[in-house]
Structure formats: C-alpha cells, structure tokens
Amino acid sequence: MADAALRLTALAEDLLGTPLPVRIRAWDGSESGPPGAPVLVLRHRRALRRLLWKPGELGLARAWVAGELDIEGDLYEALDLLAGLLWERGADAKDAVHPIRNPVLRTAARKLFAIAGPFPPPPPPPEELRHRRGMVHTKHRDKKAISHHYDVGNDFYSLVLGPSMVYSCAYWAAESPDSTLEEAQRDKLDLVCRKLGLKEGMRLLDVGCGWGSMAIHAAREYGVQVTGVTLSVEQAAYARKRIAEEGLTDRIEIRVQDYRDVRDGPYDAISSIGMAEHVGSEQYREYADDLYTLLKPGGRLLNHQIARRPERDESAYHIDDFIDSYVFPDGELAPVGRTLSTLEEAGFEARDVEVLREHYALTLREWVANLEKRWPEAVRMTSPGRARVWRLYMAASALSFERNRIGVNQILAIKPEEGGASGVQLRPRRWN
C-alpha cells in the first residue's frame, strides 16, 4: 500500500510535538494532512536523503532547488506556516532537526532511511556556490561572490525587476499608494537625490551602481556628474548601454571597480543603495572610513541597507545557509544600531533614519509576481534551479520583512564642516 505521506506525517508530528499545518503528497501518490492546506510535494525520495545528510534549512533548500520538493497552493501561506513550525520556535526547534543535539532524531533518522533508502548523499544542485577559498571579503573573493549573484543574465534581471532595473526596495509615497512598481522605484531614486541635496554641477559617487538607474536619474533630473562603481561586468555593460541611449555619456562614468580602490575624491555626495550588505561586519569600519575620506566637508552619504534584528547573544548569530549558499555568498546583515555607531565612529553625523520595511515587502511581492507571470522565459534564461532559487528567496524575504524579522533603512549622514555646520535645512517631520 502506498503510505509514504502518512508515515512521514506521523514521523514529523512525533518529532515536533505538534500537528503539521500542511499536507504532504509523496512520490508514491499518497497524501496526508489537513484538507485545504497548502501541499508540500515530495517528488522523489532523494529529497528525504538530502534532509538526512544535511538536516535543517540547507537540506530543504537543496531539495527545493533540485525540484524534488515543491509547494502547491499559496506559496506565502505555506512558507509562513513552515517558518512558524521550524524557524520561529527558538533553539529547541532548531535542535529538533539536528541529530547530534537530539537523540530522538537519531531514531527518526533510522525510520527515514527505511523510507528514503540508505544511499550516499546526493550532490548539491549546480546553482550552489561551493569550494570558496581564502579569507572572507578580500577583493578577489568579493568579486567572485558578486559575480555569482549578479552575473546570471541581464535579461533575467529585467524580467524580474521590470523596466526600472532597480534592485532595492521601491518607495510607495503616501500621496500615491497605488503606484506601479516602476513609479515607486522612480520615487525611491528621487527620494535619495532629494536627501542628498543634489544640485547641478555636483559630483556624485554611486557605490554599487547596479544597472545604472540611480546614476541616470541623478544625472538626467539633477544635472550632476556621476561616477558609478560595480564589481559586476554584466551590470557595467548594461549600464553603459543605457547611459549611451539616454545621451548621458558626458555626465556618467561607470567603472568595474572595488569601492576600496576609488581614489578620485572628494565627492559632493555618495549614494550606497543595497550595497553595504556585501561588505561584511569585519570590514564595515573600513567601508565607513573610505566613504568618509571620499566626501568633501559638508558632503552627504545616503546609506540604504537591509538590517537584521539584534540577537540577545550576538555570538550566536548565524548567517542563513540558503542565502549564503545560493543567493548572497558571504553577505552579512547587521542591526541598524551597529551601522549607525560605525558610521559615527568614522566621523559621520547621522541626520536622518527612515525605515522602509513594509516598502520592501511590497517590492518583493511585485518581483515574485513578475517571475511567476513569465516563468517559462525565466527558466530558459537561466536554469530551472536558478529560477527556483529566486522564487523561494524573494517570497521568503517578503514574509521576513512583513513579520519584522528583517528591516531596511535609509541613513542620511554628513561629513561635518569645520565648526560643526551641517548644511542641512531645518524642516518639520510629517507623520500621518
């Protein structure tokens, strides 16, 4: 009798001590679990072997990327239910999926072997970045990490991000809550320009310039001279093409260059939008010092950065295995308070902090919708595994922002002039 789903459900509920909130459909056609709930589809026994050999998040991610595990029904609902079951129940729940820490799981593992078959561990899907060598956040290793994430095809990014080609959270202004993604991204770029106080003739350094959207907006709308730097060869080529089509080659220079190698300051303003997450906690002070040196006195920095919630014990902080292996290799998130402190230690004065957490959740849902709408094209442009990585990563990230597990903040900081003048006008805060 086909009963793999029933056996797996019973095993999981015994282990976790709670009913499963999702249904399971196994490779043998059997189903078990609450009717009407999202369905966790196990297409192959190999998905179980991945969990046996790599318990927890990475094993699940490998099965998902390989197409051995899928979800039918509302993806967001399923991820939310599974997150509450596995990732939000504290240390006890994490120990529950680790056989060394939980002897009960050793017994469960023997039962799983009986279902999955005692075969060697399957090789990770090819989309996973492996065999990283050398110290973290050297220039060479950072370049390879950036290439893994960004050099997957400009056409693919265009499909996901839409015409704006902005890969950071959009800004839905209160005056226009029903804006399209493209309008909201334009409003975000303009918000950055206004915070930086850009005026014609100024020099702007755009650190991590991506596909050139910020550089183009600042040059076209505010008449500034822009230098954009990125480590992605594909991004730079795309940005230069866009700039030429806009007739802005005399105002914008795009370099494939590490920000640590920029030496032609001082600049009047610096924008760093969605780039500092790649810097790493050990190098963050160097990042702040370098940007401080590159600004003229009175110059402004706009740092737009994802932040995590602080841990009670910061030594227990663990980088997400799925994100590190498949999405942002060597990326690190820091609490916003630590970022502010580091900028101040470098000499900056923080003048404004704006939280855009809900804006990023909306942005990610728009990107997921773009991807799902044109799924066959996305698969052709990259690979089935890569498209699955992005769908899972963006949907799970949207939920993380909505549930306040992570946030995103714009910090406006200045390099004070001699005597302490900020050059920032007094203005009232507007609150609804």
From TrEMBL:
Record-level GO BP terms: lipid biosynthetic process; methylation
Superkingdom of the organism of origin: Bacteria
A molecular function GO annotation: methyltransferase activity
Keyword set includes Oxidoreductase: no
Record keywords: Lipid metabolism, Methyltransferase, S-adenosyl-L-methionine, Transferase
Domain Polyketide synthase-like methyltransferase: 156-399
Classification via InterPro entries: CFA/CMAS, CMAS, MeTfrase_dom, SAM-dependent_MTases_sf
Family the entry assigns: Belongs to the CFA/CMAS family.
Record-given protein name: Class I SAM-dependent methyltransferase
Organism per entry: Streptomyces beijiangensis
